[in-house]
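Limitations

Structures in this collection are predictions, not experimental determinations, and the ligand pose is part of the prediction. Treat each record accordingly. The example that follows, with fe (iii) ion as the small molecule, is included so readers can see exactly what is and is not provided: the inputs are given verbatim, and the output is the predicted complex.
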Amino acid sequence: MIYIGCHLSSTKGFAGMGRVAGTIGANTFQFFTRNPRGGKAKNIDPEDAAALMELMKREGFGPIVAHAPYTLNPCSDKAHVREFARMVMADDMKRMEYLPGNYYNFHPGSHVGQGREAGIAMIIDLLNEIITPEQSTIVLLETMAGKGSEIGGRFEDLAEIIAGVNVKDRIGVCMDTCHISDGGYDIVTDLDGVLEEFDSVVGLDRLHALHINDSMNPVGAHKDRHAGIGDGTIGTAALKAFINHPALKGLPCILETPNDLDGYAREIELLRQ
Ligand code: FE
Ligand code: FE
Ligand code: ZN
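Predicted complex:
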């Protein structure tokens, strides 16, 4: 089974997202747990969450991916910014238990000049405060483009973070095609090589979800500008080869391309062909 979907607005609630996903040919999706720029969250409606879980089961959905606000910085040089990230993520862990057994993806953060080692240590500390052995949610580190002082632009960054996390079966990785391409991993001419490198550095068993985006910039640009499927430097053929790679079978594929729902429906159909 191939699970494809896209990032959806959560304004119509959990079950609402499930219904919208169905209308665009999606059998997975991603959503922000709260305002992506602020951090404010709506109260969870347990019935609405249960209705989504029921719909997902009935329609044969794959696991879904919640995305933390992208303004969080778990390795900021300011204590109050790190504390805010910890608070938001700890609260999100509780909220995710209304949708048990799914994924929670976040951007590891930017060390803003403190150095890679210091940044990684702060991310590990935060994760060890929020991840409990009781939770059913697996927290995913997103592969990043390596813009500025971003952590996660190299697979080694992610491996070092995972090595420091205590609850090993609740931590994993979400691989973003635009980000790894911008990070310098050439999935157009050397997909096997890139996945072998990921396997030897992090381990493919840690990979739980995929973000499928084309990139506006060439390999190694460290920019992070998403393009529509076929409108960027990766291209439709390479992205199809990516989602059909035997090593990535069964993982939820989430589009985060600049699109409206009609555009997402077209891209989902294109990738399913
Ligand atoms: Fe992201
Ligand atoms: Fe992404
Ligand atoms: Zn991005």
